[in-house]
Amino acid sequence: MSKRVLLIEDEPNIIEAISFILSRAGWDVVTHSNGHDAIEAVQNRQPDVVILDVMLPGRSGYEILTDLRAQDETASLPVLMLTARGQTKDREMAERVGASLFMTKPFSNGEVLDAVNQLVGA
Predict the structure, then answer these.
(1) How many domains would you assign to the chain?
(2) What is the pTM of this model?
(3) Can you spell out the DSSP letters for the chain?
(4) Which of 19, 65, 101, 117 could be cross-linked to 122 through a Cys-Cys bond (beta carbons 3.0 to 4.6 Å apart)?
(5) In sequence order, which residues have a C-beta less than 8 Å from that of residue 8 and are 6 or more positions away?
(6) Phi, psi of 9 (to 5 degrees)
């Protein structure tokens, strides 16, 4: 059975690239493109891993992750945070709110696949 990843990202080119990379590696990829109802998307889709962009319409990835960590069902869900801003303060904020891994854009195909596999222990 394939593992499911929920990609919460609003940039179409990033969605397409990550979906292609992970699908080709056997992942079932579902996408969501806004922060407004991202928590509901996680609850409804019950992914094995979430890839979460920091800057989303409606709510930031930091706010979404804070909410996920506060709920028992998603407190330990592996989350890879993506951001175009890779400054130290951004990494520190991601760690503070509970990101499992942090990756800056642009990234290589191999980096994304390695990170997702690492999060599920593959």
Answers:
(1) 1
(2) 0.95
(3) ---EEEEE---HHHHHHHHHHHHHTT-EEEEE--STTHHHHHHHH--SEEEEESS-SSS-HHHHHHHHHHSGGGTT--EEEEES---HHHHHHHHHHT-SEEEESS--HHHHHHHHHHHTT-
(4) 117
(5) 31, 32, 33, 35, 38, 41, 50, 51, 52, 53, 56, 61, 64
(6) -155, 145
Assigned token pair, 11: 């940039």
- Residue 82 lies in domain: 4-119
Q: Which amino acid, 115? A: A
pLDDT tens digit at each of 122 positions of the chain: 569 999 999 999 999 999 999 999 999 999 999 999 999 999 999 999 999 999 999 999 999 999 999 999 999 999 999 988 878 898 899 999 999 999 998 999 999 999 999 999 86
| Widest CA span in the chain | 38
Residue corresponding to tokens 């409804």 = 44
- How confident is the model at residue 122, as a pLDDT? 63
Q: Which CATH number characterizes residue 56's domain? A: 3.40.50.2300
- Cβ(103)–Cβ(112) under 8 Å? yes
